[in-house]
Amino acid sequence: MSLFSGQGPVSWANRDASGDPEFFNWFGNAPEFTMGLAADTLTHKESYTGNRTTDARIITELTASLSITVDDFKEANMELATFGTGSQVASDTVTGEDVWDSAPVVGERYSLKTTGRVSAVTLNSAGSPISTSLYTVDASGIIVFSSVSGVTGPITADYTKAAARLVGVFKTSAPEIAVRLVGLNTATESGTVSGDFERSIVDIYKARMDPTENLNFINDEFGTLVLNGSALVDTLKAAASAGGQFARIIYLDPPSQTVASASVSPSASGSPSVSPSASVSPS
Question: Does 188 score more than 50 pLDDT?
Answer without folding.
Answer: yes
